[in-house]
Amino acid sequence: MGLFTKKPFEMLMAEAEGENRLHRVLGPLGLTSLGVGAIIGTGIFVLTGVAAHDKAGPALMISFVVAGLTCVFAALCYAEFASMVPIAGSAYTYAYATLGELFAWIIGWDLILEYAVGSATVAHGWSHYFQDFASLFGVHFPRALGNAPFDYDLATGKLVATGAILDLPALLIAGVVTAVLVKGIRESAWVNTLMVVIKLLVVLLVIGLGARYVQPKNWQPMAPYGWGGFSFFGKITFGDLGPGGVPRGMLAGAGMIFFAYIGFDSVSTHAEEAKNPKRDIPIGIIASLIVCTILYIAVTAVITGMIPYDKIDINAPISDAFGQVGVKWAQLLISIGGLTGITSVLLVLMLSQPRVMLAMARDGLVPTGFFGAIHEKFRTPHKSTMLTGVFVGLMAALLPLRVLAELVNIGTLLAFLIVCAAVLIMRKSHPHVPRPFRTPFVPLVPILGILSCLMLMLSLPMENWLRLVGWLLLGFVIYFAYGRKHSVGSRIDKGTA
Q1: Which DSSP state fits 491?
Q2: DSSP code of residue 161
Q3: 51: closest CA among 177, 224, 211, 201?
Q4: Could you check whether the bond before residue 443 is cis, i.e. omega within 30 degrees of 0?
Q5: What is the pLDDT of residue 19?
Q6: Cα-flanking dihedrals φ and ψ of residue 236, to 5°?
Q7: Which of 39, 100, 133, 282 has the CB geometry, 3.0–4.6 Å to 79, for a possible disulfide?
Q8: Cα dihedral angle (189, 195, 197, 198), rounded to 10 degrees?
């Protein structure tokens, strides 16, 4: 079978047994907390502003519904697989069982793009949010240590020097989070739950207090840039083009704020650490997605109702909105909630990355001695966690936010698309495998998931596709140079697995 060798279902289940496995310590509340922790952060506290200001106006509320529906279709498919195969690895593991080794490698390499580069993006955002927060108390970082050494100039399309050396706060937060994650999943989950509680209280404060200052006239016009924004490989097919030839409209807003939903799938990477994964993982995935979608829509309605969309500050939209209506005391609390929210996103994304590498190491696709190593005391993949911390810290400290953020969305959408396709394949190839949770309305839900993911992928600029191709080509070099020779798939083909 070669490159398309599938991993037997029985072998997948056997890998969760024995000494080299993770602690099962997470219940449905802890898993839902991890999901909410991964989702609510940069999207709601930062991207809401720029998406409403530049892309969709008050119609951003509908943009969140469109992006949320795309995630719902994928979430239902993730939940079925997570209940069937309750081990580490997420979509990578599912692809190995249904589509074969080559597709498993593609999705695993793609998840590295999502989690590692996504973590660097969030760490970079955390740095600037922290610097803004510190400035409220008169503390200012030296310019040379507060930014990446270069940035992407939208006007010229070229990289330009910023005069800085590195983004020190981004490097430091990556180091702190790495230390927490090496210590253990129980401690990591407890810290994350505390941060989730804080930021949820702040989000509820924003909704409850902000509703008093909403003026419905600010919602008119609802879609100042139109309801379109759909493009095909960068060519507009439905909607309007804004300054610089960038698509804008409600659908364009959905493509931008899709980043705000990235993270719900990270719940499935912790299936091996769930107490009752067949029940708790589906609960964690779906509950976290529903909670966050409702909060996103409510916050967007409040902010665009408090002040006109074209007056929203794109850097700190929520806190600035309260400043504009004269509620200065709320700005400090909202800043604390925003900083806490972004921190919890970083923790969950960096928690997920080593679990994917652990699954790939068990299959021999990457060196098992390093990426498959489990700490004797903490029972965490400590070596790959530390390597992830170094990788994330250096990228966040040296690369600009625009370059980092544009790498993430398309890779995540590809992962979601493959999971939806895998559900259809698994229903045909393994119809009798127990499914404690079944994706409803098959094949409709997986097909809608595939089409909606594809729609958002095609709406992204051509540069995103080129970066994805470059990343995948690098992955193929590693796969054919090392992974294929050492993989469990090659042993299955030889009859030695």
Answers
A1: H
A2: E
A3: 224
A4: yes
A5: 45
A6: -65, 130
A7: 282
A8: 170
The radius of gyration computed from the CA coordinates of the chain, to the nearest angstrom, equals 22
Determine the average pLDDT of the residues in 57-80.
Answer: 89
Digit-coded pLDDT (tens) for 470-479: 889 999 999 9
C-alpha 189, offset from chain centre: 17
Q: State both tokens at 472.
A: 């995948």
Q: CA 195, CA 309: separation in Å to the nearest integer?
A: 29
Q: 107 by DSSP, 3-state: which?
A: helix
The number of residues making up the chain comes to 497
| Helix (H/G/I), strand (E/B), else coil: 8 | coil
Q: What tokens appear for 372 in the block?
A: 């498959």
CA 7 – CA 100 distance, rounded (Å): 7
**Which class for 137: exposed (0-12), middle (13-18), buried (19 or more C-beta within 10 A)?**
exposed
Half-sphere exposure of 328 (CA within 13 A, CB side): 1
In the block, tokens 């253990």 appear at 184
Domains and CATH numbers, the chain: 2-494 (1.20.1740.10)
Tokens of 473: 């080509």
Q: What angle do CA 420, 110, 41 make, to 5 degrees?
A: 85
What's the N-to-C CA distance of the chain in angstroms? 14
Letter string b/e over residues 170-203, b meaning 16 or more CB atoms within 10 A of that residue's CB: bbbbbeebbebbbbbbbebbebbbebbebbbebb
**Residue matched to tokens 């599912």:** 94
Residue type, 469: V
Taking only the tens place, the pLDDT of each residue in 165-175 is 898 999 999 99
CA gap 152, 368 in Å, rounded = 38
Q: Is 238 left (phi over 0), alpha (psi -120 to 50) or beta?
A: beta
Tell me the whole-structure pTM to 2 decimals. Answer: 0.79
pLDDT at 315 over 70: no
pLDDT at position 221 is 92
As a whole number of angstroms, the distance between CA 323 and CA 334 comes to: 11
